[in-house]
Design brief:
Layout lengths: L9 E8 L7 H17 L4 E3 L10 H6 L1 H18 L2 E9 L5 E8 L5 E6 L9 H4 L8 E4 L2 E5 L8 H9 L4 E5 L7 H15 L2 E5 L2 E5 L5 E5 L3 E3 L5 E4 L6 E8 L1 H9 L15
Parallel strand pairs: 1-2, 2-3, 7-8, 8-9
Antiparallel strand pairs: 1-14, 3-4, 4-5, 6-7, 9-12, 10-11, 12-13
Helix pairs in contact: 1-3
Length: 276
């Protein structure tokens, strides 16, 4: 099968590895606008931020500022519109019943919510499941570059989610994260495995810096944001300690091309697999 490359499949993507100022969305948004302006200057179509990049994880703060969360979402939409760039990252969003969800939103360059995904797998080790509501569906977004899937951090440990996206024709999955020590090796191995087994691009953007979880102690985020291609090659990889802005141009048709040559999905035997 011949896969034709086209200008429409060419995406310039920026990974914005950053420190998050605890409970200060105003400061985080100001920093983000500077990063967005630089990404636009460097020709980016899409900029990706980490998990909970506007607030961090303060459970009391998240529960008591519902109006502020919606205002922040509108401010991010305005940034996308003003700079004419797509934006992704996870942030707190109020659900219909007034609870808080860890939500990955993909904003279009017009400032529209092109895709909204509530984190499905909540990280019980740090009690995320006690304070947030889990999502119950996956999100595939039709973008100018093809289908994009949304995930958040801990989701990367659940290969079924990524396989579901691949079977729907997703070429790129965005994975904002707050992955802490001592799991740095897991982060890279899992990211590359999800890309390889599903023949897709994966953009994982992690935080740097520390965060205080009270009785659970202080965690250190190790950065190492990365962009993996469908063959498992690291296209981009950041360092462990500093804020960085990484930019790459990729052709999402590479996912289609590899899938047409190495026909993993056609060779599957789903009738033999039982998942529960």
């Amino acid at each position: 099968m011949l896969v034709l490359h086209s200008p429409e499949s060419q995406l310039t993507i920026t990974l914005a590895q950053m420190k998050v100022v605890y409970r200060r969305p105003d400061e985080n948004l100001a920093k983000a606008e500077t990063l967005i302006a630089e990404a636009v200057r460097r020709g980016s179509d899409l900029i990706c931020f980490p998990e909970m990049w506007t607030t961090g994880f303060d459970w009391h703060y998240l529960a008591t500022k519902p109006r502020e969360h919606e205002e922040v979402i509108e401010q991010v939409a305005a940034l996308a519109r003003r700079h004419r760039i797509w934006i992704n990252g996870s942030l707190p969003m109020v659900t219909e019943d007034g609870r808080i969800a860890n939500t990955s939103i993909l904003f279009s360059a017009e400032g529209k919510r092109a895709g909204v995904y509530r984190k499905v797998h909540l990280f019980s080790l740090l009690h995320e499941d006690r304070h947030l509501v889990a999502g119950d569906s996956l999100t595939v977004v039709n973008t100018p570059w093809g289908k994009v899937g949304l995930s958040v951090c801990y989701d990367i440990r659940f290969p079924e989610l990524y396989r579901s996206y691949a079977l729907q024709g997703v070429r790129l999955v965005l994975a904002p994260a707050a992955f802490p020590d001592p799991r740095r090796d897991h982060w890279q191995v899992l990211s590359r495995a999800r890309a390889i087994e599903n023949q897709m691009f994966l953009a994982g953007v992690n935080r740097v810096g520390n965060e205080d979880f009270g009785p659970d102690g202080v965690v250190r985020y190790f950065g190492t944001s990365l962009l993996v291609d469908p063959w498992g090659k690291l296209v981009l990889e950041a360092g462990e300690a500093e804020e960085e802005l990484l930019v790459a141009s990729i052709d999402l048709c590479e996912a289609d091309e590899l899938r047409s040559r190495m026909r993993v999905f056609a060779d599957r035997r789903p009738e033999l697999y039982e998942l529960s």
